[in-house]
Amino acid sequence: MTDAEMDLPRLALPLSRSDARNLALGDVVRLDGEAIVTIGMPTHQRIMAHIEAGKPLPFDLGGAAFFHLSICSRETAGGAEPLYANPTTSTRFNPFLPTVIRKFGLCATAGKGGLDMECARAMQEVGCVYFSMIGGASPLLSDGVAEIVETAWDDLIMQFRLTRIRLSGFGPLTVGIDAHGRSLYDDLLRTAEAKRPDILARLKAGRSVG
C-alpha cells in the first residue's frame, strides 16, 4: 500500500446517513465493516420476488451496504476463506435497484460502471451513495476482504450467493453517485452528448474532403 493510499479516509459500514450525505462526488475512501455482496442476476430476481411476496430475505438488508462484488472462497477447517474479490457492472441491475434501495434504505451500493438516474433519485431519497470500484483491480480489492461471515441461497453458484463479508481497508473506492442524486456518470454522459454534434460535423467534413 502506498503512502497516499494509507492517507485515504476510512469509513465504517454501514454508513450513517450523515456520513453518506457528507460524501461528495469524486471523494476517494477506504471501507471497514460489513457489506452484503453478489453479482447474480438470478439473485436480484429472487430478491425482487421476496419483496413482492412480502417474504424476509436470509439477511436483513435494512440500512446495509449492498455491493456488486463476487467473492470466491475455499472451505477450510476454520470455515470459508476468501480467495479473491472482483466487481461486476452495476448497470445490469438498473431495473431492480430503485426498489431495493427504497425498500431497505440502503446506505451504500457499489460496483463498476455506475447506475442510472432512476437509481440516483432513489439514492437521494434515502441517503445512499454509490462507490465506484476499479475494474481489473481484483488483487487490490481482495486484500481488503478480511472475512466471509456467512452465505445464503447456497443453491446458487458461489459468486451469485448472498454473501456477508467483513472489510478492512477495502478500496480505494470513488464516490460515483452521491446521496444528493449527483452522478459522475450522468455528468460524463451530458458532456459526451454536448460534444457529439461537433464530432459528427468534423467527421462529415472529413469525408467530404476525401
Task: Write out key terms for the chains shown.
210 residues, single chain, alpha/beta, fumarase
Describe this structure in words.
Helix 5 links the parallel strand 5 (108-111) and strand 6 (129-132). This protein has helices at 3-6, 17-22, 41-53, 97-104, 117-126, 138-142, 184-209, and strands at 10-13, 28-38, 65-76, 79-87, 108-111, 129-132, 145-152, 162-177. The protein is globular, with a radius of gyration of 19 Å. The chain has a single domain (3-209), classed as fumarase (Alpha-Beta Barrel), CATH 3.20.130.10. The longest helix has 26 residues, at 184-209. It starts with a helix and ends with a helix. The chain has a five-stranded mixed β-barrel with strand order 2-3-5-6-8. The protein is built from seven helices and eight strands. It is an alpha/beta fold and 210 residues long.
